[in-house]
Amino acid sequence: MKINVFGAGLAGCEAAWQIARRGVGVRLYEMKPLKKTPAHKSDMFCELICSNSLKAARIESAAGLLKEEMRRMGSLLMEAADNCAVPAGGALAVDRDRFSSEVTQRLREHPLIEIISEEVRSIPEDGITVIATGPLTSDALADRLSELCGSPLHFFDAAAPVITAESIDMEYAFTASRYDKGGDDAYINCPMNKEEYEAFHAALVSAERAPRHDVDVMNPKVYEGCMPVEILAQRGLDTLRFGPMKPVGLRDPKTGHRPWAVLQLRTENAEKTMYNLVGFQTNLRFPEQKRVFGMIPALHNAEYVRYGVMHRNTYLESPRLLSADYSMKEYPGIFFAGQMTGVEGYMESASSGLLAGINAVRRLKGQQTVILPRETMTGALADYISNSVSKDFQPMGANLGILPELSVHIRDKKERAAAYSQRGLAALDTMLEEINYGTDNG
User: How many CB atoms lie within 10 A of CB 430?
Assistant: First the structure.
């Protein structure tokens, strides 16, 4: 019996490879070259549409840890990336055409992979299927997915920055909920006096923004609910004080008075190691976000897990729908992989395809699926998309903030990152025999 894989992007290609190397046949569906979106230029698989950088190369980093885990699990894409690397300083960057060509050739030459060039418009009711059609999913399939999931797919137009909890200077912040409702630890509040607020406002309205091409963020009918904070600020000096920075219902215990303005931080995970800037969705350039938001006293040393972004992206409400093995909770024979699950980034997408492919085979054979430890970056991403407690689930890339905290606090950033990586790889190594079972490597 063959397993269906929809989409020959990074996640779909990795999933197909993992299935085939375990001795199971694959039907890999890809609508190119018969049909392309405006973003597609090449007829080859695994097309890198944006940058050719796969982020940091050193293992002692979130991106580097993820890539090393994938190498150890037999990733086709990591093998191709290493073969096609080009000079890029501390990053792993690839010759994008060589990279796509090598992946395409390897898949086309594999005897267990059948390539089917057609647009998928429906989802099989039986068998095992991995859906990895990405943010550029065709309208017809998107409609079917909405029916399957019981709700429309998300259109991710704006996201606020996320910072690490330990980088918040609590000398300038306090925990409280408005009118003391919901418990003292519901929010971290970052107060500002009148002088601080007015200086911040002036910097915000004049800060440099990232270029926009895909949507008109000024259209109030569509985007009022996710208006960039810098656009709101342009409406008047006090707009933010009556909006996302309103101080009503809050009293700073250090002064005994209501602040002039307050930025609230809301936890992103159950461990409270990450916080998002409530109401601060933004289209500022990344360095500008760090500079301007750093003018808020409590955030002067903030470490960013994810900067605010604005773009269109189709993704699932994954915590409600998916398990940490990337299968649907209600329909365990259907797996999802790639950016539509809520992982963000080239290798993050490929890592989800790797796990989905492994687990699709295990489900076909009646075996228990693999759930990787949260200490691994691959496992932490799978846990994030399946167990996020955030009220506003948004895509996330590899970062140290989603890993469980270390048992010992390490102040030095490089040493702390190295400790996370050593712990993650040690946790993965204990499972490699199980992960590679049934392949030519195990």
Answer: 9
